[in-house]
Design brief:
This protein is α/β, with parallel strands linked by helices. It is built from 12 helices and 12 strands.
Amino acid sequence: MAEKEMVTIADIAAAACVSPATVARVVHDSGYVSVEKRTAIKRAIDELGYVPNKVARGLRNKRTNLIGHVLPLSSENPFFTRIAMAVEEAASQAGYHILTVVTQDSPEKERAMIEDLCGLMVEAIIFTAQTACDTAFIRQVVARGTPVVMIERPRDIPEIDIILLDSYEGSRVAAEHIAQRGHSQIGYISAIPSRGAVEHSRINGFVSTLKTHGLACQEPWIRWTPDYFAEYGYRAMEEILRMDHRPSCMFITSDLLACGALQCLYRHGLRVPDDVSLVGYDNTLSALSTPPLTTIELQPAQVGAAAMDVVLERARGQRTGAKTVTLSPVLVDRGSVRNMI
């Protein structure tokens, strides 16, 4: 079967009996065209199935209104979906389109996808969470003139813009909430600190804040997981429940981990918050669990808006140097922490 040729502006002009320049004014909404001619042009566009070649237009004016968004493996963690939707919404409001790629944490796949995005002349690339590529390659992308924004887990590259979610503050707020309700037997589940600065900030914010209240996170009740998956939260909670004594409250730094822990408690016949209190993190699944969990909300709408703001500042020539924006999480209280006072 022969490949169908692309309909051009010249084809539309011939069908509507007007000049190509008149068709271009209608297509790009860039000048006066009489109602009669405009109607004829739109009829020809519908009949011939004309679609404007935005790539070619971008080559002419060096603008594509396209932004690349690079995500790691996202099927397990709805946090990435929330960020992707927020970036998409903020971009749409600014007249941009997002090209989202999911890398499955593969350096080779991610590198190829980024090269494709650059080939499509995206005006910026946004990375959410950890990039799988090495820093040298990201530096090459920046050096070629593509602005880069990194959300939550940035690399040490002076030229990039950064959107940080204040992990220390998120844990501080959680610790304050737990301490104010009179808990002293406190546990903690999180991904291993060696994953990066995010995990370090979370444990430091939690432990430091408890200390100001004369409290401590009990070492036997601290469990580290390889990643943020529900099965790891289940296993960590299972290990804690095997001990002679259990904590009265657990802070768990991912709703996915918290849901796994909640399932474990249910299997053991323990109720939240009567037997064990729980606080989650990221507000992705906690409203849907039974019971709903108190959690730390990362405000993805603000994250998406901040990412687009820094992109637009560069695109409009309002700024040339790199910029870092830090956003503070907030606590959403759903009553899963028992008042012990």
